[in-house]
Structures are given as C-alpha cells and as structure tokens.
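$ fold --in a.seq
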Amino acid sequence: MLRGLGNLRTEYTSDVDDIARDFYNRCLRESSAYDRITGFFSSTIFHLTHPALGTFIGENGGTMRLLCSPRLSDSDADSLLFGYAARGDADLVEALRAELAHLLASKHAATARLLAALIAAERLEVRLARVTPTATMSNKRMFHDKVGLFTDDAGDVVGFRGSLNESYLGLSVEGNVESVDVWPSWEGGRDAERVRNAVARFDRLWTGQVPGVTVASLPGEIRRELDRVAEDADLAALLRDLADGEARLSPAARPTVGGIELRRHQLNAVQEWQAHDQRGLLAHATGAGKTITGLYCAKLALQTGLTPVILVPSQLLLDQWTGQLRELLGARVVPAGGGHDRWSRGGLLRAAVESSRPERPYAVVAVLNSAASPSFRAQLRPVTPQTFVIADEAHRLGSPQFRTILEWLDAPWRLGLSATPERAHDLDGTRAITDYFGGIIHRYTLKDALDDGVLAPYVYQPSWVGLTDEEQERWERLTTEIRRRSAIAQAPGATPHSQDHLRYKLIERSRIAKGAARKIPKAAELIVDQWRPEDGQKWLVYCDNQNQLALVRQALDARGIRSWEYHRQMDGDPLTTLKLFNVAGGIVVAIKCLDEGVDIPAATHALILASSRNPREFIQRRGRVLRRAPHKTIATVLDVLVLPDSLDRGDPTWPLAVGELARALEFATWSIGRDAASRLEDKWVSMGLSLSDIDDLRPAGVEVDDDDEGHP
C-alpha cells in the first residue's frame, strides 16, 4: 500500500534524484490505478517503468487513464506521442498513424507493441483533450504543469504536479532537467486538499464536464491500428522481454566520465574503437554527444599513460574542450592557438606530454592552424608515441592545408569525430582522413538519434522567394560563363587553373541565391509571425555575410524586435553573447561560424536564410537546434528557399531549384508529420514538373560552393 512507502519527499528533481526509481516506480508498485494529465505521452516511458509495470498490471490488476492534449493553444501544440501540431482530426490521425509506424520500425518497437497491448487489454485508456482559448488559466495549467494521481486499494492517493511529460526523457536521468511536487492524501492539511482538488478536476476533465475543454477517445482509425498491432500479443511476455532487455544494459553497468553515464550508442562506439585497436572515425549526428565519447576515450588513454592531443578547428571548440577536460577529467590543459601562445616558448608541449601521469594528467588542445605550424611539430614529433590524437570535426584534417599534420603525428591511439567525415567532392582529402584513422568504425545517424530520443523531434517549415530581375540577369550571365569554363576545364590538357576559375564562378553564382534580396522581408515576416518572447523562445538566424546580417537586424529593428549579432569580426565577446542567449533567450543573427561544434542546446528555432548544398553544413545547422535542453520538447526549423514560379530542365535556374529542393527534402525526411514534404511536392508540381522526377533530387549534385576551409 502507498502508506507503506514511508515519508515521501515533498519534491523530486532529476538533477539530484532518479525520479523514475525514487518516486514513480515506487508508487506504481503499490497502486491499483494511475490517472495522468500530460502534455504528451511516449511509449518509450516503458523502458523506465517496466520494473513496476509488471507488478502494477500483473499482481495489482492496475488500470491507467491518460489524458493528453494534442493542442494546448495556437502557439503550443503537443500530440499523443511526440508533439505534432495537429490542426484537425485528419491531421491528428495521419500524425498518430505515422508515429506508430515509425515506432514499430525503430528500436522502440517493443514498447510500441506494449502500448498497443495495454490498450487492447483495457488496462490503459487514452483520451485526447483539446483546450480552447475559452478555457480558464487553471485548466490550461493542468496540462502545462502535468498532474498525476496514484491510487491504491485502500483509497489512499499520492498526487504530483511538475514539468515532466509522460515520456522517457521526462523521467530518465539522461533526459530533461525536471521536477515534481508530491502530496500524499494521508498527510492531511494542504496536501490532502490538493489531492481532493486534483481528483475532482481529473474526473470532470475525463468526463468532458469542464468548459473550454473538449475530450474525445482515440480516433477509431488509430484504435484499429493498435488492435492490429496487439493481435496475438502476450502482455506478460512483452513486460518480461522488455525487462530482460533493459537489465542487460542497466545504468549501473554503463561506464561514466566525470559522473556522466555513456548512452548506449556511445558505449557501442567505444567498444568498436577498442576492437579496432583504439583507432577509427565516429560518424555521429550533430548533438549526439561526440565530445563525451571522446572524453571517455581520453580517460582510458590517461589511465594507460598516453596524453590526449585534441585538434579543433576554432577557438570556441578549443575553449569548450579545455573546460570539459578540466571539469570532467581533472586534467591540466595546455591550449595552443586561439590567442594562447605560451606553448610556443620553452618546450611546454613536450614537457606536458612527458610529465603526464594518471594521478597528474595533462592534455593538449590545439587549433588546427597552430597544429600545422613548424614549432608545434618540432615540439610534439619526438613524443608522438606517448600521445592519443582526437580530431574534432575530423573532416577538416582532409584539406591540403591541414593534411600535413597527419604525415608526422604518428600517435598509437587515434579517434576522429564528425557528423560527416566524408568531404564533398574531395576524394583525396577523404582518403587521407580514413587512411590515418582507420576508416569509419561506427555510425549513428540523425534517424538513430531521433528514434532514441537523444535529439529533440522537429517541425520543418519551408518557404520560398524568387530572384529579382537584376539577380535573375546576373544568374543567367554567370550560367553561360560557367558552361564555357566547364567545357574548358574538361578539355584535354586542361590546367588546374581552369578548374579554379570554374570553381570561383560557381561560388559567385551561388552567392546570388544565398543573398537574394527578397529573403530579408521574408525573414522578418516569418519571425514576426512566430516570435513569442514570453515563451522563452531562442532563435538562431543563419545568414551568408555581414551585409545580409545587418539587413536582417535592421528589418527586425524596424518592427520593434531586438536581436544580437554573432560572427568572427563582431565587436563584443562571442562567448558572452552565447551565454546571454542560453540564459535569457532572444534572437541571434549569425554567420557560418556557428556551424561547427558550438554547444547551444537551448535554441528552439533555426531560420536558415543561406545554406550551401554541402550536406555537412545543413546537417550541422539542423543539429544545432535539435540538441536536448530543459523544457524543450520540440524544435522548429524554418528554411527560406529560392524557387521560381515555373521551370524546365533547359532553364538556367534549373541547378538552383534542384539544389534548393534537394536540401529541403533532406530536412523534411525526418521532421514531424508529412506537411513539409507535401508542401514541397505541391511546389514542384506548381512549377510544371512531374512528381516522378522528384526522387532525382535527393542525390542531386552539390555545387562546389562550400568554401568550408575559408571564412564567411
């Protein structure tokens, strides 16, 4: 019985407590009924509740009632599973069916079947509540604050209210930072009053007696889908199998670094790296925790007497690695580059490597420009057998400028980290990286990260503008010149200079689309339409150059919206800007320097005004906004494309439209719902083109405009 739990605490917080173990599962084991009001619900919660769920269902004969809100308000929409902004019943059915199919095809298929089996066995009933603008603030708050009620056979109740959703990341120690206030009914006083009020309000909501709240059962189409999934399902076996699977990967068995447990994919990657003699490239999605994986490997290296040498492309990453090496590994760090020059005097690098001990660890973090210098090589080359090389954004080492580092840095242990190790249109550079590190040994894709809840699900909102007459004329003039130079570059006896001239013209043409004048008012329109500072929104706006950045900020200023700038030449401190952004929210208008490695998990929206068709760039930009953060359920990616009203294959703007749509389809592939893909298909048809050709866009050639070793 619930009273037998003893003195429950008044509050549980996930940064201190394991809420699932210390509170949720304890109460569920002693209950025979569980009622819950939640913003959204995911079947992945059963990974955490299965130890108690078997007792609750099998021994206690327990039943659950879940009241979820697929739409809280015009600016805050959540659905049954992953938060889909359903505009109507048809959209809701489509979204839930797609999500169920997605779960069944993912690593969470077992929990999806368990969800279906519980509903089919009438042990779980789910109803959807639509909260209209006429609902009172207290009733809206019931969904925002997310109330739960555990009840036992004696009639005792434990109520709770908090920020967490009924999902894996709501309860997991690996998930969001959450808290719950707890009120046992037998404590009397205000706790008993809270329980009585919550029980009464839940019953009124469940039966549809609250003004401004419309309650309905799951759509019939979805119930039939769930019944089909649950056919021949053995509920006890599903609970047992899930428990057995989780036991094999219990948190206690997972390695840690600085108190942070490695996730399943990180542990698998480390095991693959060890199986390949401590060498290899990890192709892990942006936001999937590559740095923590690298730090754990650095911890292993330090224990064996090797000194980590971390190579990074920027000062920002140098500062991030330096801070985490000190905080999580207790290492003394020698930074090289990014304004740090002490290393270049007195043989400090070599001394650090020779002085490092497990009880007194040292590490070196170097910006690539410094690592490529003769003085860096002179100090480290004699002691390379005592080092472990970690390359963050490892694809950068494939450039001609930095490839020379690989020729002398003969470290016995090597680890390369990158979301996209392969370099677009650079076979020699890609080969140099894979040869040095020993190939790609572990992949963890965006789909994997979304399936596992490592990254936040996202809504993709594409829009488009056209070129002005003057821009169109310049585009067509450059297209003619590109065709001429392409013929010269492919002719027998062509020189490297002809390839360079062709590349310069391609870059010049791509800049027209990136800087299209009509993008400025479109950006302002999108931001004005969706900007809700009271909701704590945090926007990143990606621009091509400082002129575009300035024009966007001017357009926002004219509409009374304040923004900050972020770029290499800015007057203020870039790190201070990001710290303010993470704490206070707002709008940061940035150039390319936010792409690689910068840790900004709090971002809720990304508006892309300029992007190349290099997959690396848009993978990184999407990953920036998909990182998990407290109170962040869904991310939003807005994309402004340049597309004409009509098009055929002979049109000079064909490469532009194909490239823009290829990128957009990549963004739409793993976004929530079908709306984005449908809008892109409608646009394709409206331009006079056949849908049968649309699959050709996905592998469409990328113009060489990435300039990924240069500056904005």
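$ fold --in b.seq
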Amino acid sequence: MLVKICGLMDPKTARFAVQKGAHFIGLLFSKVSPRAISLEKAKEIVRAVREEGGEPVAVFADESLTEMRRIIQELSLNVVQLHGDIPRSFCDQIPQTKIYVADGKPYPKSLQTERDYLLFEQHIQDPQGFRFFMAGGLTPENVARMIETYHPHGVDVSRGARDETAIGQFIAQARPGRFGAFGGTYVPEGLIAPLKELEKAFREIPIEEEFLHLLRDYAGRPTAITEIPNFAKAIGGPRIFLKREDLLHTGAHKINNAIGQCLLAKKMGKTRIIAETGAGQHGVATATACALLGLECVVYMGQTDIERQSPNVFKMKLLGAQVVPVTAGSQTLKDAVNEALRDYAARYETTHYCLGSALGPHPFPAIVEKFQQVIGQEAKKQMRDKIGRDPDVAIACVGGGSNAIGLFSAYLDEKTALIGVEAAGAARFQKGGSPGMLHGTYSYLLQDDNGQVQPTHSISAGLDYPGVGPKHADLFAQRRVKYDICTDAEALAAFQLLCRTEGIIPALESSHALGYLMRIAKDLPRDAVVLVNLSGRGDKDVAHIQSLCQ
C-alpha cells in the first residue's frame, strides 16, 4: 500500500513521515491554498525527503505550463500531481510520472497505465486498468476500512494527518505490519489466508488477563533486577544491572512469547503447534506451553544446532515434543524456519506456527513484540524504584531480536541510549548487510550482490541467523538504536567472568551483550548506569563450551 502525505510545510515533519513509511510527500504550490509553500522551503523539504528515501511530489492546481516546468526543473522532480483544468490541460506536455486527479472527464491518452496513477477525491470510479489513489476525508480511524473496501494501490491524506502523531497513526493503519520501510508480508499465496486469520484473531480474541496470569503464576514474572558490582569492578566500568530473564521457567525470555502464542492458538481452535529453534530455548518454551495447554508440539531444529544444544533437545522430548532434524542448507536456524513455514502452509487448518522471534511476515513481528514488551515494562518500573531514574544505557543481544525489542520498547521515547549487539559472524548492520527479503519480511540481511543469503557463524546458536526483525531495521534506519558486534572470544570471556564474579551462568546469546560491555566499559562515565538484558541462562551451553575449552 502506497502512502502519500500531502500539504506538509516543514522538513522535520516530512522526514518523520518518510521514516514512518510514507512513499510520497506532496508539496502544494497553488497560491490559493493556505498550505502553499515557497520554492525555497520546497527545496529544504525535498532534500529531507530524498535523504530518507522518499519521493517528493509537486501538487499543481492553477499553475501555467511555464510555472510548472520551472518548479519541476528547480526541484528535479520525478512525480507531479495535476488538479484543475489548467494543469491537466498540459498533461501531454509533462514527461514526469503523473498522479492525475480524476473527476469524471476522459483521461488523457498520454497517461500510461504502467507508470501513472489516478486519484479519486470523492468516490471510486472505474480506474480502467490504472493504479489509483484514494483521497478525501481519510483519517487514521477510517483508512484501514476504506482500504479493505475499495482495494486502492495507494492512499492520500492531507487534513486527516498533519502532526507527527496523526501521521504515524495513519501510516500504521494504512500499512499494518510495516516498521518504516521494513516489514510486510512476502509469502506464497498459500500462507496469505492463515496469516490473515492469525492477524484477525490477534486483534479480536481477548487473552490479556489469562496471559498475564500465566506469566505471573506459571512462568515466574516479574523477574528480578540484579546489580553486579563484582563484574563491574573487574571491567573497570560503571554501575551495571541485569534484567534477569534467566530466572524464568525454562530459563529464558522465550516463554513469554510461547505462552502468549499457544494460548491464542488454542482459542483459535488449533490443536497442533509447530516451532523453529536455534539455541533450543524457544523449542523448550514452546514444548512447555504445549504441555501446559494440552497441544501437540513439533519443533524444527537444524542438525548442527541439535548437536551443539543436546541438553535442550532432550528437554523438548521429555516435554512431549517431536524434534525434527533439518539437514538442508547450513543446518541451522535459517533452515529450521524454512521447514516450519512449509509445514504451516500445508497444515494451517489445524496448526499454528509459534514463531520464536520478532521477525517473519506480518503479523508475527507485532505479535512477538507485544508478548515480549513485559520485559521493558517491568525493567523501567524496577529501575525507577531501585535508583530513582532510567538507565543511561540499555544493552541486549540481537539475533532475530525479540529480547532486545522487549527491553527497548519501554525506552524508545526516553533518553536512554539503546545498543543492540550482534554476533560478529552474523552482523547484519555492521558487516555489510543490506535490505532484502527473507522468511516473508523485508529487513536487513546478509546477502550477496545477487540477493543470495550468505552463510553465518556464531558460537551462539541463537545468534546464528542471517536476517533480523524488521523493527530493528527501522530503529537502525532512524538511528535510534546503535548496533555493534561481539566476537566469539569476547562472548566466551564475558561468560566466564560473570560466572566467576557473580555466580551467574549466562546464555551465550546474552554473553555477547556482556562481552560488548566489557570492551566499552572504560569509555563510559563513572556515574553512568547500564542495564543489560540477561535473556537466558547458560545451562544449555555448558557442554558446548566445555568441548571448546578442551
């Protein structure tokens, strides 16, 4: 769905709109409009829009051909919008892509169905093969309904979305599942129906009360905030606190999402749950939730990960799950996701795919974020209760990105600096990743010039993935979150140091966040406060680390 925001008058708001996912920004030049702008102001807006990857559009209503050509040339425009008889009479003489306001008159022969657009302001007319925009009276409250009713190619809003709050709400409703330019639903036709069913169920089936009850009385929330002064002293750093997701039932944050999705699936009438897993924690969490709720469970896991995460494989089987080895490709998390998606497409009538991270096609990123937000909500309150303020820095490891999204969600509108840490051998943001499509979503991934997914490596199975959740891609594009890397050696050193200084055995995934902190600690102010999300415990990794140290 294309989104055009019309009548913006300053570069800041225009930049914000494109960051949130608007494709076109309309610049009004009609002298009778109260929102008309000067050419000099238009240049500032055009520069801001193009820096963010958007397309500026000159909106003409009463200008002469000479005036239109002057403006087009001054701004180097690729797209124009034509209102009124004067501009439209010159349609044949303007080579740029045109958005032509239709009002019942015959369309000019020069309009091209493969390039130009029609725009309907009052009601939908027969577009005769044209791509078309809807406009007129659209608001954040009605745009989703209008899109569902009329199926336009794009929507155009002016009075209904002028400030940043309304613009953000409008774009979110017009492009559900989008995080700025990222996200979406890029899947085979066979998956569209189950994803729409899931989106509807997630929106309409109430599970909040039961979900929170199970988190509290079964999973063990809220989890503790623990200060680690011995570790901090050893690295010469500031005050450091851990958000202890490792203390949850099953040993990691994954149980939050697994309980939420399995509960929703049961209320949808699904009897079979499938999942993918890398480190095994999501597999264990899903198997646990299925045992609790009386659901069949099948977990896909790469053969490489099965061998390095054998304790978790045994736990899944103890809990009644069937673990299916995946021997295709690199035999890791990417390949497990492939197999799970194939299963979902074939058996969705009775099966729900409990995707474990904040990635994949819409609505999965939004669902996983919703169920993991409890991490940030708790941490924010606990830190304010404990030290009277928010942390200066919050750090989390990033594979697919669910634990980080859970923590960061509470601080996006605060002053806290946010840092996501990738494995050095699977660094989408810091090692040449680029936007592309993987597993049904548009995000950053490791790929070659031909779009072929590149192999990855990490000592941590949970970070050994070539893609990342689309919200992380958007936060990277907005520069709201800094993403950096941690090597295998740094993660191992952090693992061992936390064990020796604090008596806490962290998961290798979380050890990457700690390893990065060890590297930068001496550069931080002595009075700074750092919060690290300890996403899981390291019981599952002990045998693997023991084999590496022999």
